[in-house]
Amino acid sequence: RKEVEQDPGPFNVPEGATVAFNCTYSNSASQSFFWYRQDCRKEPKLLMSVYSSGNEDGRFTAQLNRASQYISLLIRDSKLSDSATYLCVVNRPVGGWGKLQFGAGTQVVVTP
Amino acid sequence: DVKVTQSSRYLVKRTGEKVFLECVQDMDHENMFWYRQDPGLGLRLIYFSYDVKMKEKGDIPEGYSVSREKKERFSLILESASTNQTSMYLCASSSRGGGQLYNEQFFGPGTRLTVL
């Protein structure tokens, strides 16, 4: 089983619609969670951190469910520019140093 | 703006060649990382460094080595390139916070390496 699993998609979303997708993680000791965004042929960039209470950044909402070990990302009022691959990132405590474990990504395609 | 640069965007090498990939960051970050990214597998950590001359193995260190002689520079070395090392290689850096590696990672543009 992969440590971080994501639905690869693609999620085809009409412009203006809402899309949501999840990411599951296997290590219950993980404490830090992030969503990164990667545009086609570009490097990943941090979209947002995910906090225990859930957090919002404009049209983006991230949630954490520790009991079921998943995080989610919801995008409201989708824009064409939201088309990208969204990478779920979870820390994996290993000894005294945490490593970041990246999921393979969920592709979102926003269509006019 | 944080800037992470990598020496080449595209590289073609032959099996058995020694390959050097260079990464430079200009934000005085303590931590630096090398990943490879393959379709369906996501980013996999090869090596990371939390200080000059310090290095730790990641998940897939076999066939690779690294060097960090200066804080701003982290080099990935393929001692004897093989075709299964054909991949996109991404370098990243982050500041150290609370002794952990959880701070935002800033990535370079990547080097697409093809080994023939």
Terminal Cα span of chain A = 37 Å
Oligomerization state: heterodimer
The class by helix and strand makeup of chain B works out as mainly beta
Mean pLDDT of chain B: 92
The unreliable regions of chain B are none
Order of helices and strands of chain B: EEEEEEEEEEE
Largest sheet of chain A, in brief, is: 6 strands, mixed
Query: How do the SSEs of chain A run, as a string of H and E?
Result: EEEEEEEEEEE
The helical percent of chain B reads: under 10%
Major sheet details of chain B: 7 strands, mixed
Helix share of residues of chain A? under 10%
User: How many β-strands of chain B, per DSSP?
Assistant: 11
Measured distance between first and last alpha carbons of chain B: 37 Å
Q: Round the Cα radius of gyration of chain A to an integer and report it.
A: 14 Å
What is the 3D form of chain A?
globular
List keywords for this structure.
heterodimer; A: mainly beta; 0% helix; B: mainly beta; 4-stranded antiparallel sheet; globular
